[in-house]
Amino acid sequence: MLLLKNIGQVVTLDCGPAPRRAGSMSELGIISNGAVLMRAEHIVWVGPTKEIPMSELDSQPTVFDGAGLDLVALPGFVDSHTHPVFGGTRAQEYDLRCQGKTYQEIAAAGGGIRASVRQLRAATPEQLEDRTERHFQQFLAHGTTTIEAKSGYGLTFEDELKILYVLAALRNRSRLETLSTFLGAHDVPDEHRKSRDEYIRTIIEVMIPRVAQEKLAHFCDVFCDTGYFSVGESRAILTAARQAGLALRIHAEQLAHSGGARLAAELGAVSADHLEWIDDTDIEALRKAGTVATLLPGSTFNLGLSHYPPARRLIEAGVPVALATDFNPGSCFTLNMQIILSIACSQMRMTPAETITAATINAAHSLGLSDRLGSLEEGKQADIVLMNVPDYREIPYFFGVNHCAMTVKKGTVVINRLERT
Length: 421
Ligand SMILES: [Zn+2]
What we know:
- By secondary structure, the chain is of the alpha/beta class.
- The protein is built from 15 helices and 16 strands.
- The strands form two sheets. Strands 1, 2, 3, 4, 5, 14, 15 and 16 form an eight-stranded mixed beta sheet that branches.
- 56% of the residues are buried.
- The mean pLDDT is 96.
- It binds zinc ion (ZN).
- Zinc ion (ZN) binds at residues 81, 83, 251, 326.
């Protein structure tokens, strides 16, 4: 049994059904000087410290007393869009972008996703597991307790499976919880540049059936954008995935207004991601479909662009908004959700409260996990982080530092910096 008490603010997000839309994204259900009691993997009680139910306590609970410290407790971040399995970094492309080359120019010269594909194919499963496990530990150290993790740097049957097997193996090695997404349609690989239809047929007829049969992924995703996969191609791939039992996510409207968001609504995708170039008709379609808009402002920031997704219009229209890092070695090399909240506040004019809702309960909803994750309520899984700040607004406001002092995953302390304070 684990008890956290005398926590300055406990941000429960215990505020009604998920997903949260419009004004309800601002409701955080904060308890001042709060406490959280956990037994095994679950939360059994949340409330003010002075009301801790002593009759519920075991004889020797593990107690963390926040008296005299500046601490905010909140649900572990749920990062609902990441590309965490890759064979190497692309710092030289970052350098080129800083010198004025665009992402598209670098991709046309053989860089971008195709560079990551070459690195991934050359790496052994052991190398990939070791690299990815180190990153998983960093997710936990920054307060993220669950991630969605995509394939998409293999782009052959064997190499896509290699990524999904790495993710499956890490479920036994890492405390980070992961849900896998098959993203065979991330790009057309070099060897199929002149036979893209054949590659798409392989995705539909070979890869998706095997992924579904072996239960290697919960979701299927497509990079539906100019220069990648058209709306027609994306529809064919996603329809096959849906028939195979996979839920759908789409990279949409990142590079140009190309129809991905409306396709997400048409197919009942659980999430449409990026959305830099979405228009009001698309927004209405997402609202009607109940599709979550997953915004990735870290990639806009990291690419040095100025056109962010229209978060305010999405929220005001009643579309549930989630935030995620887009952690990947090309366009967004951060796994720190805290800095994503800062960028969302300063560049998209979301409020600190909205960003916390977007990075917890709404992200959990987009993964189909909001009944178990994303808020601190009796009966939910005990995934909790303690941030070393006096007020939740300081998580985005005091930016560029890691505020995470403790991470609890399924009732177990997996990161603890409080012992040093
Ligand atoms: Zn992505």
